[in-house]
Amino acid sequence: MGNAKAAVFASGTGSNFKAIVESPSLACDIALLVCDQPTAPVIDLARQHGVPVLLVDPRDYPSKAAFETVILQKLADDHVDWIFLAGYMRLIGPVLLNEWEGRIINIHPSLLPAFPGKDGIGDAFRAGVTETGVTIHYVDQGVDTGAIIAQEAVQIFPDDTQDTLKKRIQAVEHRLYPKVIHQLVSRT
Ligand code: GRF
């Protein structure tokens, strides 16, 4: 039996995409990058790693349902088993969720349920808390509300800037996401 196949959804830099695709022990194949931003650096990263890219710009579709139907079809055509969101800056709508709930995972840079949303790092930094972290969770219809799979804490030091904090959080993300993917995929 071959490896499970996964699609990564990303909108931006792609440092998590890179960590996943370069992991030596993922136990699944990254068969597709789905990207919604035509100028996102993650597209070049995918090409460098020989990962096919589905670039779908929502502005080209009359509705979110139409946009997601194109993605849904591609995932079926490619026999994809898992979706890993890695900086995908868009809510997953009912078209994708109805078919995929339970097989879509997201990574978020805070200890959920604290600091959900677009700027988990900045929000925690500005709140003045001494601890934040990284959460990997199942995706549901809410914003960063799905069942938690794994978390790791990151301390915030008095001399941290948002930038130094971000670097430490991302280092944890790049280690934790491939590890959790390996665990999830290996037990199915
Ligand atoms: C990560 O911090 C991730 O937790 C969040 O978006 C960011 C994506 O960064 N969901 P990158 O594009 O993987 O570098």
Q: Summary?
A:
With 188 residues, this protein is an alpha/beta fold. It is 36% helix and 23% strand.
Commentary on this structure:
The chain is α/β, with parallel strands linked by helices. The protein has a single domain, classed as Rossmann fold, CATH 3.40.50.170. Helix content is 36%, strand content 23%. The chain has six helices and seven strands, in the order βαβαβαβαβαββα. A seven-stranded mixed sheet has the order 3-2-1-4-5-6-7, with helices on both faces. Strand 4, helix 4 and strand 5 (104-108) form a beta-alpha-beta unit. It is globular and about 50 Å long. The model has no long low-confidence stretch (mean pLDDT 97). The protein binds 5-O-phosphono-beta-D-ribofuranosylamine. Residues 10, 12-17, 86-87, 107-109, 173 line the site of 5-O-phosphono-beta-D-ribofuranosylamine.
- SSE arrangement, N to C: EHEHEHEHEHEEH
Q: List how many beta strands DSSP finds.
A: 7
Q: Number of helical runs? A: 6
Low-pLDDT runs of 5+ residues are none
Please outline the helices and strands.
Elements: E1 4-10, H1 15-21, E2 28-35, H2 42-48, E3 53-55, H3 64-77, E4 82-85, H4 94-100, E5 104-108, H5 120-127, E6 131-138, E7 148-155, H6 162-186
Parallel strand pairs: 1-2, 1-4, 2-3, 4-5
Antiparallel strand pairs: 5-6, 6-7
Helix pairs in contact: 1-6, 3-4
Bound molecules: 5-O-phosphono-beta-D-ribofuranosylamine.
5-O-phosphono-beta-D-ribofuranosylamine (GRF) is lined by residues 10, 12-17, 86-87, 107-109, 173.
